[in-house]
UniProtKB/TrEMBL annotation:
<feature type="transmembrane region" description="Helical">
    <location>
        <begin position="63"/>
        <end position="83"/>
    </location>
</feature>
<feature type="transmembrane region" description="Helical">
    <location>
        <begin position="12"/>
        <end position="34"/>
    </location>
</feature>
<keyword id="KW-1133">Transmembrane helix</keyword>
<dbReference type="Pfam" id="PF07681">
    <property type="entry name" value="DoxX"/>
</dbReference>
<feature type="transmembrane region" description="Helical">
    <location>
        <begin position="129"/>
        <end position="148"/>
    </location>
</feature>
<keyword id="KW-0472">Membrane</keyword>
<feature type="transmembrane region" description="Helical">
    <location>
        <begin position="90"/>
        <end position="109"/>
    </location>
</feature>
<dbReference type="InterPro" id="IPR032808">
    <property type="entry name" value="DoxX"/>
</dbReference>
<keyword id="KW-0812">Transmembrane</keyword>
<protein>
    <submittedName>
        <fullName>DoxX family membrane protein</fullName>
    </submittedName>
</protein>
């Protein structure tokens, strides 16, 4: 297998990973946006681990609406940047931040009771895995290869010529 073929396969795999993670973020944001009953209150109020007080502070009645709104906006922004392939690195940084907060709100430490967990984990859960995948996407950006950034960049070059 040639080096060009290996590079093409790697880029294609990272594009697929980028779009799938983008879809996950966008879906989560849109579902929360259109659900008038949704709030992050329960998730934050049951936070565990060393940052418990930080997450409990976010449940304050004066700021919970801001907390919910910023969470939804960030999910949608990350989803759009990754799916469309524009501002990809900005989206990955925001996504990494969100996932780190989700992880730290309910860390899967063996000495903590697992609340709001979809299974039994031991240090590693889906948030940490998706965070690691976003680190890969950050290191191997693909928007120049497949995405809106490529189209905009090409149009800009056409205008210069």
């Amino acid at each position: 297998m040639s080096e060009i073929d290996k590079a093409w396969r790697l880029r294609t795999s990272v594009v697929l990973l980028r779009i799938l993670i983008g879809w996950h973020f966008l879906y989560e944001g849109v579902i929360k946006l259109y659900d008038p009953e949704w709030t992050s209150f329960g998730y934050l109020a049951s936070a565990q681990g060393p940052l418990k007080q930080f997450f409990l502070a976010m449940t304050n009645e004066a700021i919970i609406n801001w907390t919910d709104g910023l969470n939804i906006a960030a999910l949608i922004i990350v989803g759009l940047t990754l799916i469309l392939g524009i501002f990809e690195r900005v989206g990955t940084v925001i996504g990494i931040g969100l996932l780190a907060m989700y992880y730290l709100a309910h860390p899967p430490f063996p000495w903590l009771e697992q609340i709001h967990a979809e299974g039994n984990y031991w240090f590693v859960n889906k948030n940490l895995i998706e965070l690691a995948a976003l680190l890969v996407i950050y290191q191997l950006p693909t928007a120049d290869y497949f995405g809106l950034h490529r189209i905009l960049k090409k149009n800009k070059e056409d205008i210069k010529n």
